[in-house]
Design goal:
It is built from 2 helices and 9 strands, in the order H-H-E-E-E-E-E-E-E-E-E. By secondary structure, the chain is of the alpha+beta class. The protein has one domain. The relative contact order is 0.13.
């Protein structure tokens, strides 16, 4: 009887304070570990989504600009083989140089579309320009304007629409015949009159963060580590057979 009473007394005591504390510590450790794993998983998904947005942004921009430049065309008044004297609209290829935000004007030919799904016809007047962002101070967005190329006056830009946001740099560098040129290009005047570059180099940079950084980190925006760049070289189809701005030198140089 005595032994049975002692067993009942032991069973009724339950867990000691030390055992409770150890159990709680283990549970807390498990919760922290699971939370860290979940946070890591979320961070990975956020990073992947950000990278996908940046890749899509650059791909969209470089593909659109490349297609337009590749299909650029020019018809001068004296260009008889191309019907220059009988043309019903002006053509242009112009690059305004401005540090890291060039502005491009060109007439293009091909299966041209205006607004999504809206055909414009066989020819169009297109303008690209990097403008300060309306939503994120300190950032820039790439705008594209397009209209039918049936105008005699190309001084006014067509309606401009933003199609790539957070673009830091937009540079268009023409091939002048013997080297790349850092000068402007204007097919309506000077040495560039009625001339297309045979090739054009396109350089586009974007910030790798979509949102504006806090004030204390704004200097970090300018860091090269926060910028992703893409570049390509495009040959202009209609420039074949046109005289180069400068002919490559055949002179042999001895060193």
């Amino acid at each position: 009887m005595l032994g049975r009473e002692q067993n009942n007394k032991i069973d009724s005591t339950g867990f000691s304070l030390l055992e409770v504390m150890v159990t709680i510590s283990i549970l807390i450790g498990l919760v922290v570990a699971v939370a860290a794993m979940l946070r890591s998983s979320v961070d990975v998904k956020v990073a992947l989504a950000r990278d996908a947005r940046i890749t899509n942004r650059l791909s969209t921009a470089i593909t659109r600009v490349s297609w337009d430049i590749e299909h650029a065309f020019l018809v001068g008044l004296n260009d008889t083989p191309r019907g220059g004297s009988e043309r019903t609209f002006k053509t242009i290829f112009k690059i305004d140089k401005n540090s890291d935000r060039d502005k491009l004007y060109l007439t293009i030919s091909g299966n041209v579309e205006g607004d999504p799904g809206v055909p414009l016809g066989d020819t169009a007047y297109v303008v690209y320009e990097l403008r300060d962002s309306k939503k994120s101070p300190g950032r820039r967005d790439l705008y594209r304007g397009i209209t039918a190329a049936n105008r005699d006056d190309l001084k006014e830009d067509p309606p401009m629409r933003m199609f790539a946001k957070n673009i830091k740099t937009f540079k268009i560098t023409p091939w002048k015949g013997d080297d790349w040129s850092n000068d402007r290009w204007d097919s309506s005047r000077g040495d560039w009159r009625d001339k297309l570059p045979a090739m054009v180099k396109i350089e586009i940079e974007t910030w790798n963060e979509d949102e504006e950084l806090p004030d204390e980190n704004r200097d970090e925006q300018a860091s090269d580590s926060n910028v992703i760049a893409v570049n390509t070289i495009v040959a202009i189809q209609q420039a074949r057979g046109m005289k180069e701005l400068k002919q490559p030198s055949n002179t042999v140089r001895w060193f």
